[in-house]
Amino acid sequence: MTRTVTLLSLLLLLPFFTLAGGIKGEVNGSDGEPLIGAVISIKPINKMSVVGMDGTYRINDLPEGDYTITVKYVGYKDLTKTVSIAANGWTASDLILDVDAVQLDEAVVYGTKERKTSESARATERVSSKVMTVLSAQDIELSPDLNVANVVQRVAGVSLERNNSGDGQFAIVRGMDKRYNYTLVNGVKIPSPDNKNRYVPLDLFPSDLLDRLEVTKALTPDMEGDAVGGVINMEMKDAPETYSGQLNLSLGNNSLFGGGNPFMTWNTGGNLNTPPSWNGINNAIPSDFNTNHLLNQYKNYVPNIVAGLSIGNRFMNDKLGVMLAGSYQQTARGSESTWYSTGLMSDGTTSLDNMEDRDYYQLQKRMGLHAKLDYRINNKHSIQWYNAFVNLRNDQVRDVTRTRTWGSYDPINGNAGEMSYVTRYRSTIQQIFNSTLTGQHELNNWLKADWSAVYSKASNNVPDNTKFSRSGSMTNWVEEPERIAARSSLTRRWDYNDDEDIALYTNFTFTPEISFIYDTEFKVGGLVRNKNRSNDFEQYRFNAGSRALVKGEDWNDITDVDWIIENPTGVNYSPNRYQSHENIRAAYGQFKFDFNQKLEMTGGVRMEHTDIGYYLPQPTNEIIDNDLQEMSQTYVDFLPSIHFKYKINPKSNLRSSYFKSVIRPGFAEFVPIENGDTEDDWTEMGNPFVERTIGHNLDLRYELFPSGMDKFMIGGFYKKLINPIEYSLNRQAGYIMPDNYGDAENMGIEIDIVKYFNKFGISANYTYTHSKIVTEKAFYEREIPDDDTSDIVIRSALEERPLQGQAAHIANLSLLYKNPELGLDMQLATVYTGDRIHSLSAFYGNDMWQKGFFQLDLSIEKRVSPKTLLYLKAYNLLDNAYEVEIRQPINEAQSHFPHQGEVGDNVLVRQDFYRRQFLVGLKYNF
Q1: Of 157, 199, 654, 896, whose CB neighbour count within 10 A is largest?
Q2: What pLDDT shows up at residue 61?
Q3: Confidence at residue 179, expressed as pLDDT on a 0 to 100 scale
Q4: Would you say residue 320 has pLDDT above 90?
Q5: Angle at the Cα of 494 (from 493 to 497), degrees rounded to 5?
Q6: Taking every annotated instance into account, which residue ranges of this chain make up the domain TonB-dependent receptor-like beta-barrel (predicted)?
Q7: What is the structure's pLDDT at 104?
Q8: In angstroms, rounded to a whole number, what is the distance separating the alpha carbons of residues 115 and 93?
Q9: How many CA atoms lie within 13 A of 228 on its CB side?
């Protein structure tokens, strides 16, 4: 693999080395803009070149003589110039094209911003009033990433939380856990299909539906105030000025599957849509449950498929714009994993209680539909109607072999007195529908108004989540036949939740003239949102009778068993059935002053009124006794902010900002419900007493945009969190619960660099984050420390640690090559995420840490005709393991356990391998 990476790096570097002799220089417009992509032709030799990403050009291998250069670029007048070249030498010639005033005059009628180019992304970063980073559609297309979650990890300061198949799912911005960020589509908030939380799984969204991705890290008053880390805004494809369309098709493979590890699945179409109780059956019988669809199926090859189509045009004298786009992705993912269940010994060391060999087989089917209409009533009024539907279906088999690693367990000779086998068949169907009607109105030359009416609905459906459990043992590495013996050997569970939002946004912008201020803007507005969530749950348990059934004698597959229902009425009392609401009323006032075209100040205050609560229609007796069957609370938060931008010169800015924000708990976090179907097999418990978090945020950043696509940014940030919400593992109670943990600090520095050398470029960013929180942790100790016969008691002590999910070091490095003449684009991209806390423990020094890891991806695009482009994407080339550990030393006996290290190494809790994936395809523009 090292040789492969070295070869790929050399291929990217090779085009940079050129022969001596020729013409080189910069190409700019008379307005100071670098004309990236301008076409340069030279006579009498018929040679052509294209201006590189740094605004420079070079034409090689020209003999001595005089030449005529012609430069063309849309929106600028053609330039012709004569240049002389001496023998074996280079001639420097900078070229400046005059702006074509005629074309500019025409553009005034219906001016639109080109938002999907890399140049527009860089311009937005430069002129924005707030701290933000922008990735354009051009950047996204070249990246190896298929969904928004994996795209956003390329942004400085952003890391990912991944699911068990290794795919990115949630963004962690500046070390702030996913709860501290929110997601927008075209500037409006959307609900989450997640069954417990308000944050949106970013892997739902195909990346090829985007025009740009914006990450804002400092909030202004006109933005909703519930973010500390940042805000991720997905700007979807807009209607082009002229007819255009694109077809995208590709096929790929995951190296994890095939040969000795075929892809394991089942008849996913056979899942019951609803349990008997939801159909009015109060006393279910075995015939109400079918098991024929739960027969294992094995496939040596499951293709990865990506298909996309987009068409856009303008009609009615360019007044009506239409954009239609669709995307479908099928990806086979999974992992080969080892998990350890751990305990805590009386001396504070960690015990290894169970080992699980887990194999995940997951088929993802992701679909996105996108329709946008915009109508330009005239040059002062316009309306847009946007509709989107995204759907992600994950069909997953989790096949587990669990070995009890104490008692008669002998890892050297292969003896295990107690083993178990658990196969879980689970389909998760998540979807979001959003419809947004928006209007922009210029009421006069100093007053503008805009509004948005939004309806959104998100849902999460897990139908017939089935677990099939068996027991066994092993002697001299030979496993005995599996047995069905325990109660609840088969469980079938249904979960469904939906989230419905109705919202109205209004904004008024005033631009009065004030004599002593160069440019003035006042903005006021408000928001009304009603959110309602419902959650439903059902579970049935089955056993095979009073005696153990042996595989090969009494049964061969799950359909051979006469299952007995243990709870024919289902779950009669369950707090997992609930309704909740969150109603937000917000208003703000904002000002922006540009004092002298140097110093710009933006600030104001936002008020958010929150009404949040839940109702349990089937509370347990314990919940009734504690008077927790319903809850409603209201509160008001005033969120001031102030932002300064000093324009040192036209190419550099100095920014500073402060904003206050509020983070509300997720729905299931304050509802006292249990969820025992988590990946970590710990029961999760809601906490009705968890409080909202208040954040105070400071930013300072220097920006330099020297030329072309180059940029250099360095900044620092500081965040003070009051009552941060984190999960803690309570081993005695056997569950994890969200709670508030005093105050916390988070600070760091970001560096973001893009540098091109004509066609070769380097993009790099690095973020160092340091956070600190002090919490009370328990530990075991002898009641009389010097007396080994005294009782063991639990005491507590304060422990300082980072925030959960925060990595001290995050880095991205991409080697880029863009050659329009050859129609060739290449990107070799690596991401590093440092050590961070994976799960918190209630005990001192017993937190679980995810170890730092690298991921290397490759993307190559080659234009083979003016309309056709071929591409290759390769993921996870290094195939590094994802590992979680407890920073306690293993002993001699534990060092013989599979995958554990030497005596004194940290305890390995989890190790996952996801293997490599490849995709080959084409894009056709029409």
Answers
A1: 157
A2: 78
A3: 87
A4: yes
A5: 145
A6: 454-877
A7: 41
A8: 31
A9: 28
Whether 814 and 821 have beta carbons less than 8 Å apart is answered as no
- In angstroms, the first-to-last Cα distance of the chain is 39
Q: Is there a single domain that holds both residue 711 and residue 576?
A: yes
Q: Which of 204, 237, 270 is the last residue of a domain?
A: 237
Task: Report, as an integer, the average pLDDT of 781-791.
Answer: 86
User: What stretches of 417-527 show up as alpha helix (H) in DSSP?
Assistant: none
User: Helix or strand or coil: residue 732?
Assistant: coil
- 437 and 369, same domain (yes or no): yes
What is the helix (H) or strand (E) element at residue 594, kind and residue range? strand 578-594
Six token digits for residue 41 = 């032709």
> What is the per-residue DSSP string for 148-159?
HHHHHTTSTTEE
Looking at every residue in the chain, the average pLDDT score rounds to 88
Distance CA 564, CA 542 (A): 5
The DSSP code sequence of 637-669 is EEEEEEEEEEEEETTEEEEEEEEEEEEPPPHHH
Alpha-carbon distance of 371 to 310, in angstroms, equals: 10
Give the mean pLDDT of 519-538: 94
**Based on the structure, what is the number of domains in the chain?**
3
43, 68 in Cβ contact below 8 A? yes
pLDDT of residue 3: 54
Task: Count other Cβ atoms within 10 Å, centred on residue 301.
Answer: 11
Same-domain status, 527 and 603: yes
State the DSSP string of 587-626. Answer: EEEEEEEESSSSEEEEEEEEEEEEEEEEE-SS--HHHHHT
Q: Rounded distance, CA 234 to CA 212, Å?
A: 6
Q: How many CA atoms lie within 13 A of 643 on its CB side?
A: 27
How far, in Å, are 2, 807, 860, 910 from residue 879 at the CA level? Answer: 12, 20, 20, 16
Last residue of a domain, one of 86, 107, 128: 107
| DSSP-based three-state secondary structure for 126 | helix
What pLDDT sits at residue 85? 84
pTM of the model: 0.86
Six token digits for residue 857:
């991806």
Q: Is 553 exposed, middle or buried (0-12, 13-18, 19+ CB in 10 A)?
A: exposed
Sign of torsion over alpha carbons 788, 794, 795, 801: positive
Q: Are 771 and 27 in contact (CB under 8 A)?
A: no
Q: Which residue has the tokens 């937005």?
A: 124
What distance in Å separates the CA atoms of residue 353 and residue 258, rounded to the nearest whole number? 32
Name the token pair of 192: 């989450």
Dihedral-angle region of residue 21 (phi above 0 means left; psi in -120 to 50 means alpha; beta otherwise): left
Q: If you ran DSSP here, which 8-state letter would residue 125 be given?
A: H
**Residue 284 amino acid letter:** A
Q: How far is 312 from 318, CA to CA, in rounded Å?
A: 12
Paired sense of beta strands 95-97 and 22-29, if any: parallel
Q: Tell me the three state secondary structure of residue 706.
A: coil
Gap between the Cα atoms of 82 and 72, Å rounded: 15
